[in-house]
């Protein structure tokens, strides 16, 4: 019987980028029960901001979750800094932060308690930056509320503030502008512009398109090509 297989093609725009690779993806394979999604997919992610772009269903969210180790790859190698996911999974995880827009894990915590939790988990957490992020994202009035009480947009701002303050070597952000008010869109755009100048951290940001007019380390486009076996 005919089946549908999705193949990914990789396009990387390399700009002058003297720094070394922070995340190495080698021959990554992954399949959902109904379709192959990644077949021997490789990439080298350097410091700054790399955009992961593609249409609906092209695999952006799945790839972020694979790189975070939240989904178990079928095969392939992931190395973050000096740490291999398969050999040192806890150490690998401790070096990355992923925004999880749909998570309900922290619903019974206040935003401030959540930030304190993140601070305990990330040794390089930037406490001084957190206050600026709370102000810049207009979270002051929400910081003492339980997360279940927050709107989708405010919750996303909490994840974003934690992501930028985490100090993680690798920060994975899915749809950074979704459900945000225009002032916050502008603020997050500025944060991403600053992040693009980082030499010791890397951000992989998934969206439908890259932010126009910002410095970018690379753009990776995922495309889904339906083929019949
Ligand atoms: N839990 C799941 N079980 C089975 N298939 C899934 C699951 N999650 C995603 N998929 C499929 O994997 C493919 C990629 O989905 P994914 O959400 O990663 O894409 P995306 O680029 O992030 O899309 P969007 O921008 O719409 O979120 C889609 O065909 C989707 O239907």
From TrEMBL:
Molecular functions per Gene Ontology: ATP binding; ATP hydrolysis activity
PROSITE patterns the record matches: ABC_TRANSPORTER_2
The organism's place on the tree of life at top rank: Bacteria
Annotated keywords: ATP-binding, Nucleotide-binding, Transport
UniProt domain ABC transporter: residue ranges: 23-224
UniProt xrefs under Gene3D superfamilies: P-loop containing nucleotide triphosphate hydrolases
SUPFAM superfamilies recorded: P-loop containing nucleoside triphosphate hydrolases
Keyword Transport: yes
InterPro entries, per database record: ABC_transporter-like_ATP-bd, ABC_Transporter_VariousFunc, P-loop_NTPase
UniProt-recorded name of the protein: ABC transporter ATP-binding protein YtrB
